[in-house]
Amino acid sequence: QLQLVESGGGLVQPGGSLRLSCAASGNNADYYAIGWFRQAPGKEREGVSCISPGSTRINYTDSVKGRFTVSRDNAKNTVYLQMNGLEPEDTAVYYCAARFGAYCRAEMTYWGQGTQVTVSS
């Protein structure tokens, strides 16, 4: 079983940057794919990025490509989402989630509690 805790959200102006962290505790965290998801008010949850256990598979939704970078430090059991060039449309609650194996799915096994990201001037 894994517990996931996100941090790093906040209020930032358009064009600014934030780095989200997802700290995992539990057994064998480095065997899990970690996904970042977000949900804006009145919208469905969407997948933002996914990173495989060995960081060999990384993908992003089209709207964040070139602006967001996902990485992981398995020694620290932490996954990061570096978000640059933030836009108001990026405003949402961001969640990290884990699934055993190399791939993320919409139905992940473990979820964090979420962290709010607000992009506004």
Task: Walk me through this protein's architecture.
- The protein has 121 residues and is mainly beta.
- Helix content is 0%, strand content 52%.
- The chain has strands at 2-7, 10-12, 18-26, 32-39, 46-51, 58-60, 68-73, 78-83, 92-100, 110-111, 115-119.
- Strands 2, 4, 5, 6, 9, 10 and 11 form a seven-stranded mixed β-sheet that branches. It has a four-stranded antiparallel β-sheet with strand order 1-3-8-7, with no helix packed on it.
- A hairpin with a 6-residue loop joins strand 5 (46-51) and strand 6 (58-60).
- The chain is globular.
- 34% of the residues are buried.
Strand-helix topology:
Layout: E1 2-7, E2 10-12, E3 18-26, E4 32-39, E5 46-51, E6 58-60, E7 68-73, E8 78-83, E9 92-100, E10 110-111, E11 115-119
Parallel strand pairs: 2-11
Antiparallel strand pairs: 1-3, 3-8, 4-5, 4-9, 5-6, 7-8, 9-10, 9-11
